[in-house]
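User: Modeling request: complex.
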Amino acid sequence: MSISERKKKILAIVVEEYIRSAEPVGSKAIAQSGQLKCSSATIRNELAELVALGYLEQPHTSAGRVPTPMGYRMYVNELMDRQRLGIQETEELNRRLNQKLQELDATIGAVSRLASQLTNYPALALTSSTSVTLKRIDLIYVDANTFIIVLMLSGNTVKSKLVKLPVSVDQEMMQRLSTLFNASFLGISASEMNPVLIHATEQAADDSLGLTAVIAAFAIETLTEANAPSASVFGENRLLNQPEFRDPDKAHRLMSYLAGGGYILPPSDTPGQTGEVKVFIGPENVAEELKDSSVIIASYDAGDNTRGLIGVVGPTRMDYSAVAAKLSVLAAGLSRRLGAGEAPPEGMHNKLIIKEPEDKHE
Amino acid sequence: MSISERKKKILAIVVEEYIRSAEPVGSKAIAQSGQLKCSSATIRNELAELVALGYLEQPHTSAGRVPTPMGYRMYVNELMDRQRLGIQETEELNRRLNQKLQELDATIGAVSRLASQLTNYPALALTSSTSVTLKRIDLIYVDANTFIIVLMLSGNTVKSKLVKLPVSVDQEMMQRLSTLFNASFLGISASEMNPVLIHATEQAADDSLGLTAVIAAFAIETLTEANAPSASVFGENRLLNQPEFRDPDKAHRLMSYLAGGGYILPPSDTPGQTGEVKVFIGPENVAEELKDSSVIIASYDAGDNTRGLIGVVGPTRMDYSAVAAKLSVLAAGLSRRLGAGEAPPEGMHNKLIIKEPEDKHE
DNA sequence: GTTGGCACTCTCTTTCTTCGAGTGCTAATA
DNA sequence: TATTAGCACTCGAAGAAAGAGAGTGCCAAC
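Assistant: Request completed. Predicted assembly structure:
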């Protein structure tokens, strides 16, 4: 069922005005906005119909109108003009991105912090569960009681750890272990590094000191950690800027939910390609705590077939357009730097595809 | 100037009752608490004097009394019974600590998170500015375009990074560089790794590819980062539990201050020995944003002459006794695991020394 | 020095009133 | 038929007034 152009126009004005002011929008204000050439009375009629259709609602009888989640959805899908950042802004953003990029872990933290700063909403960084494996193991002999384990993972990240032992080892033993590990432990998952394999390696290395176990434990732990979906959140406090979170209890609920880190995407909503931005409005979110908030998520290529997500949480009255644009650029920038190889074509970083979640019942 | 025992007793009751209830404490309530055998009228007289002395104040004429910062200070210094955690509780805490300990960086994050959980206040982890130097540099050759830099720092932490080059290098060159770096770059500070030294090394290594610069840059960056005092905060949202932060603006102010990460200790307040807990009450804090909050900080030995701090922030109406006890145990546990060597004597972990900040004017 | 008694003060809560924005409806108009 | 002007009505927000209650300070008695 489609609605008239004028209704769409009015809906867009209501949404934008409400996003700006956080106050219910009245017919008069719409008429005065000068974007329509009809009187407030006409607009009142239209508004009444938009309410009947479910796009708007009234907090109470004699208040202005406020968009419903369905209204926002319509706005996001069809009405809003996809903002593109100006060249200047894009460059500024990329510049800030450049400063931050060192190592994957630190990066995603830094980027979500950046996202939060830019949008003035709490931001979350998610890495979806992946299958990182070992690419290489090195053991560096420091002294008789000390060595360093260096693991290179398939994501091209490197993890290292210093190990101090109560017993002494010699370099030759380390050499042997290193060779064995590189032979047996590469390319397999953490769960495949089972006691049997470890024991076999131990035997083969003639290791009576338990080094094998130490190294394997570190490998398993590192892989498990790298594979686990992780979430980090920054800028929770920015929620308190929003009038809808002036109630400390409400704010607290959402903030602890976010701090808990268990953000779940609506089912079957695997993130799409880089630059694509998904918007989850209010009840579209699965988590109870998010039912009256919105989440905007962009996906980026973290290299090695891994995708990362970076998102922003806010009230349903969010500046979807601006946030989506910013996230899109951030994600593109991240992809370009972390991604597998093929640099996206120039200009791509500013493209913006907005998808709605798959299951949009409700 | 000393005050009578009874006044002290009353002050203690007021503080504790206020900590518990967050409401001004009246004379009647004190009398009824049964800890004193005199009437409310007598207590009223005493209260009036305590107000005159500056230990208590009245929000308004006909309200109960509330401790002033000076009152809290007196309480912390002399009145409160130093809580000791029960054996059971201590063990529980240590158990949780055990799970968390992997690597220094991750650890302090995890521990401050733990501190926040245990105390239900926001927690901060600080590493004071130290002078970490390089202890060792290794270069691992991966393939012609790729190598790994492994730095071992004086704190016995290890940092590594994968470097991809647009040009190819050979193993022999890496060997040469590695030797040179280990000869010239160990034990010096980041600022001493100046262009002159780098250039000299570059020359000596006959490096026309700029590898030297890359490695040096990573070394400098790593050291700078390791040396910089860093702060991380967890559980900001717990502030919203506290009635004194029901005002979202107030909460927001403090939370953004904390998120900013620039927590500064009162001047000359270098943290003391492990197990020692310092309490900064309201205006004793230097930061404007903390003038009506309290900070409790424990210091731990992070190994290699480095001290770390772990602290908790809350309203002045804080459960000093309980928080101090918990932090003390946490700090002791951390020291035991990270610290240089000499394990603290058994039982030490439960000892609690509370120091006031040096400059206590105001 | 301690106690009971009592008038007083001040905030918090509740209730009531007022104000105004915005609506829905009707009748007139293009 | 769509639009517009006009107007009575509704409902929340904000302010004022009144009442309740907790706690005090002080006085006189013990």
